[in-house]
């Protein structure tokens, strides 16, 4: 496979024998992110080839294909045609999910530490976390964790020097200038500040509508956190995570 560069600031290069890495260049990170996710959505609709799948991140798309049915050069050509397509300006679909959070204590063992790092009170940290809708930029491991923009702390939050071997499902954590919602128990080096009682992982086919996802959200959705006490947390334990205006 050859390496091509399109006229729309998109770099396409081989990533093994059955994948391509498509990187979008640009000064505006929001414009780059939106282009990445529009491209991934177009590829995943199956219009260009049924064996192609795309995994978007912040500024790049991993495009996987079956080399027995198509070639990397053919997929590159398809992507170049998308570059000039009229739907490049279409919006990334977005819904809102309200997420109750029990902050601090066993549910958020790093909350006070984070408050010290950012130079704010615990109450102010919670206020900042809950002050805005957080855009889900991409899904990460494990199990499609929601990687979102972080709170407006003013400074990045360092990760743990030694990651925890187990963080519980529903953990709400921060690191750098990002936040993450963890659907399952897993190791993590992020700073856990709270936990949601909602059930996130779906194994019964009831994940995001119109997809085979095991989680009820997708990149482009927005999350709004709100604090709850222990009693409310217990009452909501196990309730499925849903969009704000669900049926």
From TrEMBL:
Top-level lineage group: Bacteria
Pfam families documented for this protein: CT_C_D
InterPro entries: CT_C_D, Cyclophilin-like_dom_sf, PxpB
Keyword terms, alphabetized: ATP-binding, Hydrolase, Nucleotide-binding
Residue ranges the record marks as coiled coil: none
Keyword presence, ATP-binding: yes
Protein name (Swiss-Prot/TrEMBL): Putative allophanate hydrolase subunit 1 family protein
Protein's organism: Streptomyces himastatinicus ATCC 53653
């Amino acid at each position: 496979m050859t390496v091509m560069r399109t006229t729309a600031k998109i770099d396409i290069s081989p990533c093994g024998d059955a994948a391509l890495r498509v990187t979008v260049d640009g000064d505006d990170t929001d414009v780059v992110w939106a282009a990445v996710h529009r491209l991934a959505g177009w590829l995943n609709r199956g219009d260009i080839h049924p064996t192609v799948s795309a995994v978007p991140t912040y500024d790049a798309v991993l495009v996987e294909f079956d080399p027995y049915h198509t070639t990397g050069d053919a997929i590159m050509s398809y992507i170049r045609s998308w570059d000039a397509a009229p739907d490049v300006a279409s919006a990334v679909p977005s819904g809102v999910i309200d997420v109750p959070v029990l902050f601090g204590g066993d549910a958020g063992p790093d909350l006070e530490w984070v408050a010290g790092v950012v130079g704010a009170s615990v109450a102010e940290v919670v206020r900042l976390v809950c002050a805005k809708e957080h855009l889900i930029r991409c899904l990460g491991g494990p199990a499609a964790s929601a990687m979102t923009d972080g709170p407006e702390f003013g400074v990045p939050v360092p990760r743990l020097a030694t990651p925890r071997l187990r963080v519980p499902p529903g953990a709400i954590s921060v690191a750098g200038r990002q936040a993450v919602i963890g659907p399952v128990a897993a190791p993590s080096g992020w700073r856990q500040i709270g936990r949601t009682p909602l059930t996130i992982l779906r194994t019964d086919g009831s994940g995001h509508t119109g997809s085979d996802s095991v989680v009820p959200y997708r990149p482009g959705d927005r999350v709004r956190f709100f604090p709850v006490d222990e009693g409310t947390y217990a009452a909501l334990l196990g309730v499925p995570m849903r969009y704000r205006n669900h049926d």
